[in-house]
Design goal:
heterodimer, A: 210 residues, Rossmann fold, five-stranded parallel beta sheet, three-stranded antiparallel beta sheet, 7 helices, 8 strands, B: 227 residues, mainly alpha
Chain lengths: 210, 227
Amino acid sequence: MSTLLTVKQLVSQRAGRTLFADLSFDLQRGDVLHIEGVNGAGKSTLLRALVGLVQLQAGDIRYFPESALPTDANDWRQQVLFLGHKPGVKAELTALENVSLQAQLSGVESIEPWQLLATVGLLGLEDLPAGQLSAGQQRRIALTRLWYSQAPLWILDEPFTALDTDGIELLQQRFAEHTAAGGAIILTSHQPLTWQPTRLQRLRITGGDE
Amino acid sequence: MNSASNWQAFRAVMRRDLMVVMRRRSDILNPLLFILMVVSLFPLAVGPGPDILGRIAAGVIWVAALLSALLGSERLFRDDFLDGSLEQLTLLPQPLALLAAAKVVVHWLLSGLPLVILAPLCALLLKLPLQAWPTLVATLVVGTPILSAVTAIGAALTVSLGRGGALLSLLLLPLFIPLLIFASGAVEASLVGTAAWPQVLLLGGLSLLTLLLAPFAVAAAIRVSVN
């Protein structure tokens, strides 16, 4: 079972404009798919469609096409980690509480929140409400999920937004570990990756402006 | 998906919501203060004559409860929507209706339950005759869950609209009318000395039905809203 995701002939139209049509790709274990495109091209729409947050006009999205088991919704949702534009961090709760509650919601029992906070460089800020932290620090809280997630497929919308260079470096190291362990990543980013994945696919969405 | 992980997610959603609201206590206190203000202003405006005040007491308390439910209703899912937690909830493997039910339960614990506890004080302030107190409390116990559940449906439907407040009130108020009629009818019945339990039981049935179906409606509305 090495193919994680098969996408065939996706079509998306929004407000009378075709964002993308006839979009197809396969994703194998160890792959990194870098989706590029100008602002408003439909990158986020594509990612949200992949996890079922947006319904597309046409197309077929299939997780684990080679597995014999019927892939019902619950099955693949456990295998996919999606991080969108918004970090999903509660402004009222402290960094520590946010990290532990995120883990509980993900169904992970045995995490060490202190360890995770140290990893993402938030030690010393754990008792401040997340609302008082900077955008980059809030994103770091959200990104702690990547360090304990069991999901083989990560779908990340602009993961580097608001992160400093150290943060981006750290995140790319984690990506490298993930792909080395047989995971796959789909991400959008306007920045070029400084890390060279062994199996990098690029997909350019033109937003119908051709 | 096994029931243990469902239960765990249910508790995690409840715990998070409770923690968030505990950091923002004014959100709970505002609706309760509103009810107390209405209830304490009525005797001043209507006059302290026990016969009038006692007769309208249940109506006043219930109207205040309905309006206070509308007060904070648009905030129920607003913050979750804005910070992205709502979208993460829809992506969990657990059924969204279950997680929506957790949010409804928290909402009731922090808005309905305090109202039930305050009811005797309100009844005292409005000089509701003692024989009607148990009925008033009973209607609040079975009626306030309907308030929370229906409010949640409306809030989930309008969460993606920037300023959904007025629309939400228009949407919800008609749905609360039957609740108002049966609840004040029950208290009225016990005031005139007839049996109040038919109305209370009817409210109870309505409450069970709403609690059973509302989480599915809330889940569907959330899915539409995060789109």
